Amino acid sequence: MLCVYLTSLFLLTILAVVVQGAVVEARSRDTFAPKVFIISMFDAEGDAWHGIPEFNVLERNITIPGFSPLFPQAHCTRDGSICQLVTGEAEINAASTITALVQSPLFDLTHTYFLIAGIAGISPRLGTLGSVTFARFAVQVALQFEFDAREKPAEFPTGYVPQGSMAPDEFPQDLYGTEVFEVNEELRQIAIRTAKKATLFDDTQSQQYRVNYATNSAFGPGAAAPSVVACDTATSDVFWTGNLLAAAFENTTTLFTNGSATYCTTQQEDNATLEALMRGALAGRVDFSRIIVMRTGSDFDRPFDGQTAAANLFVGTPGFDIAIRNIRAAGVPIVTTIVSGWKARFERGVMPNNYIGDIFGSLGGTPDFGPGSIFRGKSALRKRSLRLRMSRPILAV
């Protein structure tokens, strides 16, 4: 009898373990459907969202295959309504991490709003240390031919020439598709209005440094206090500095968007992140109209009068602390506004009043920049040549 009892107890124990394991496995297969997904690029940007009173994204930590080995987890609130990740810096890391997120079976992202929230270099013509910027356009400015400045043609103002072109002011003749992205202007305006209600941080170090820009009237915004600014962002893996390169990429931003974009911030990831999200949209996994691009100014892209470009670079990031703090200051109200207003407004989406997507028109519609849709206004259905034209005379050498 005792033997039968012990056998039964043993079997019940085994059954309990099996059931518990099945429950754990079932939980591991839970699909999260975040209302907001915050995208950070490196550890300090990610840490800005931790330990805050408004919500706790560290309640659920989910390891995602394909994420950076330095930042292998997505972090979510207990109910999964708000999540956050760190891509790793520069374009390859950003594209790889966001692709892994989009393809993960653990997430339903079809109704998710994405808040790209990081620091950036900033032009003193438009903003200052600690300023919070929201972009409509992201331009991949380094996708060009490049001469060393010591070997460029004498008549060229810069060593950068658009792909397939023969002069710096000629629109690129070869397009890769990632040169320009445009996001939802109506959603951007909601984010701007919400962020303007926040109290932005400032500090003595930043105040003292930005005084240097007051001597040049063109740099008035750079000498002012932090504010919320509507302006656009330039993507490049190269961390550039100086008046000449800043002017060159200002021109690139204008050229690639047919004059629609206003160059303002400099960073290393946004076009890569947007391309991964756009491919997710083409696959029906992401709504491209639900993206906000927010960058805060941590350093200037060019020196103040009398300062060298090298000194501007090697001084570091004088506004780093307040740029990180203002990610949270401006970002938290945006996140909480979306979550609290989910049923009333945001669940159904914010209808864009502008074109959204890439320079090809891959999602449908006709871009208001570049050569127009290569898909005749319809969504991309098949592979096409990415070369616009290359009928060039052969030059004598």
UniProtKB/TrEMBL annotation:
UniProt keyword Transferase, yes or no: no
Highest taxon listed in the record's lineage: Eukaryota
GO cellular component, one term: endoplasmic reticulum
Coiled coil residues, start to end: none
One protein family per Pfam: NUP
The keyword Transport is annotated on this UniProt entry: yes
Segment forming the signal sequence: 1-21
GO function terms (MF aspect): catalytic activity
Example GO biological process: transmembrane transport
Listed InterPro entries: Nucleoside_phosphorylase_sf (IPR035994), Pur_nuclsid_perm (IPR009486)
Keywords assigned by UniProt, alphabetized: Signal, Transport
Purpose: Nucleoside permease that transports adenosine and guanosine.
PANTHER family linked to this entry: PURINE NUCLEOSIDE PERMEASE C285.05-RELATED (PTHR38643)
Record-stated family: Belongs to the NUP family.
Protein name: Purine nucleoside permease
